[in-house]
Structures are given as C-alpha cells and as structure tokens.
Amino acid sequence: MPTIYMIRHGKAAAGWDADKDPGLDATGQAQAEAAAVEIARRTGSPLPLVSSPLKRCRETAVPLASAWSLVPVIEPRVAEIPSPIDDVAARVGWLRKTMSGTWADATSTEANADHLHFVQTLLDWRRNLVEAVLELTQDTIVFSHFIAVNVLVGHAQKDDLVTIFQPDNCSVNIFNTDGGVLSVAELGREASTKVN
Q: Over 60: is that where the pLDDT of 175 sits?
C-alpha cells in the first residue's frame, strides 16, 4: 500500500492577487528546508519526488531533492486549482467564494451558466488530481497546493466541502492508496493562512 506524503508549498513571495506564479519568499525557503529535514527523518531513505509545475512547489522541493540527489518529476495534474479569471487582482474574490462553499456549488451549471467550459475544466482538474495520486505505485513525496490537499482529503472522506482543513505552508499530509482507494493516514499542521 503506497504512502503518499503530500506537502503544501512554502510561503510564496506573492499571493493570488499579485502574481500567477510566484516563487518562495525567505520564510518559505526556511519552511522548505525544515520540511526536507522532517521528511528525511520520517522516511529514513530517499523516495521519488513529484512536484506541481508552479515555482512555489518546485522551489519547496529543492532542499529535499538536493539532499537526496534526485530530480522531481513535474506533474501538471497536481497543480493549483484553475481559475476562470485571468486578472490576478480579481482572482482572489473568486477563490475566497469558492473556498467557502462546496464542490457542488463551484461546479453547478446553473450558478456558472456563463462559465460552462470552466465547470468542465474544474471537474477535470479534480478528477485528474485524484487519479495522479492513485496512480502512484510506491511511497512518494508530492509537492502541491492548499486546495489540492483539500481535494484529496475530501475524496478520501467523501466530503464535498472545498476547504475541509487549513494546511499550513509546508505541512506534511499523509495518504495511503490501496486498490484505487485513497485514505487519510495523517493530516499535517494547520494554520489560519493566506492562500498563496
């Protein structure tokens, strides 16, 4: 039964309202270093690394990848939730509203009649994210995002809330996969956090 260590990226240098793909700030880099130490202690030996293509995840993976002399596999399916809004300043309002509801609300064709194409994009993103994790056949470290971690928790617990818990930056969340079934083994640190 593979164990998946899903790590939310470290603190980003900018939020959703300022930059589509920020890297880590100094705090985030320190968090990434601490996460690398924690994972190495937990696993005892190197494991495959998978990362979202976004900079904040790739940079969070650097300390562990360097320590283990590995190159993370970049997996677009574990990337950030897609947004229907291109304007970075306006995206935060959409994200806050989405985070406070359910997936049924977020993907309702009645509520999103103007965004029917986006509804399908969102449904596909969630399905592909879960499939990407269920396809892993060995213990693996995955660097991903706040909403992505929540998607996996929701899938495992059959909970339709978009935000089930508040994973802190660089929190380690552990899932098991067995025969196409995802289960939560341990949720990581929580914090009231700015989504970034």
A: yes
At 84-104, the pLDDT tens digits run 887 877 888 888 888 999 998
- Burial letters 61-77, b for 16+ CB under 10 A, else e: bbbbbeebeeebebbeb
Model confidence over 136-160: pLDDT tens digits?
Answer: 999 999 999 999 999 999 999 999 9
Q: Is 8 helix (H, G, I), strand (E, B) or coil?
A: strand
Q: What is the DSSP string of 132-164?
A: HHHT--S-EEEEE-HHHHHHHHHHHHT--BS-S
Amino acid at 1: M
Residue 182 contacts residue 188 (beta carbons within 8 Å) = no
Question: What does pTM read for this prediction?
Answer: 0.92
Query: All domains of the chain, ordered by start, with CATH?
Result: 3-80+129-186 (3.40.50.1240)
Query: What is the mean pLDDT of the segment spanning 7-18?
Result: 86
How far apart, in whole angstroms, are the C-alpha atoms of residue 121 and residue 93? 19
Q: Which are the contacts of 139, defined by CB distance < 8 A and separation ≥ 6? A: 2, 3, 4, 5, 43, 47, 48
Q: Are strands 181-186 and 140-144 parallel, antiparallel or unpaired?
A: unpaired
Query: Amino acid identity, residue 35?
Result: A
5 three-class SS: strand
Helix, strand and coil percent figures for the chain, each rounded to 5: 45, 20, 40
